[in-house]
Amino acid sequence: MKLAFSLFKACFFLLTISIVAAAHAQETKMATVKGGTYIPLYGADVDGARLKVASFQLDIYPVTNAQFLTFLKANPEWRRSTVKRLFADERYLIDWEGDLNFGKTNLPAAPITNVSWFAAKKYCECQGKRLATMDEWEYAAMADEKLTDARTKTQFNSFILSWYEKAKTDNNPVGSTFKNYWGIYDLHGLVWEWTSDFNSVFIAGESRKAMLGDANLFCGSSAVGASDLMNYAAFMRYAFRGSIKASYSTKNLGFRCAKSL
Predict the structure, then answer these.
(1) 145: nearest Cα among 137, 135, 134, 153
(2) How far apart are CA 54 and CA 135, in angstroms?
(3) CA–CA separation, 151 vs 254, rounded Å?
(4) Segments in the chain forming alpha helices (H)
(5) What is the pTM of this model?
(6) Bigger pLDDT: 222 or 195?
(7) How far apart, in whole angstroms, are the C-alpha atoms of residue 160 and residue 92?
């Protein structure tokens, strides 16, 4: 009897540990990014003045398939079969095998992709967080392992550009790339990421149809007003942001959450 009771306690203990571990696996630790100023590629103040970024927190990893699955279980209106087309296009979670099944080809720890801006925004809100602003994301992402601003380092930009040439990096688990100065992984080398104001530099007002003043923001003329004409990696990010809408879902686009301090 004592042996059976001991075994029961041992099994119960292991089950409790597993539940706790699973709960923690759903949480994403955040890193604190100390505020400062920087000159963005576009959108700097008059005469190229530096923009101020307040201190904030950012998830150290992008949101994973497993974490998004937990979100869908609690929020059925965001599942593939029920989401409104106003908030997600037809490619939303297209590679999932079902509403609550991300399939055998998608690793649980790989970043969630094929999600719209609306879905990403809602996910972060459910965590008591928000999407990072474009300036916050760029500010955090300009750091390499040792410097808060590594944009002038040839090897740093070469690394980013070489990633753009690689296929299916979204299949890799989060944490696959280097940890930067702030303790954040995968800002470069895994997936593109949504920001709260992803197309604010290119769009005037709330509507994407407000195209006045945008004539010089396409093709070769997009370099007009840029702060660094040699920063090809940043040019590609800004061009991508300017080409998408909030309802779009693409295979190489994921997200992570931020929080104000």
Answers:
(1) 153
(2) 10
(3) 23
(4) 2-26, 65-74, 117-126, 134-141, 154-164, 232-242
(5) 0.78
(6) 195
(7) 27
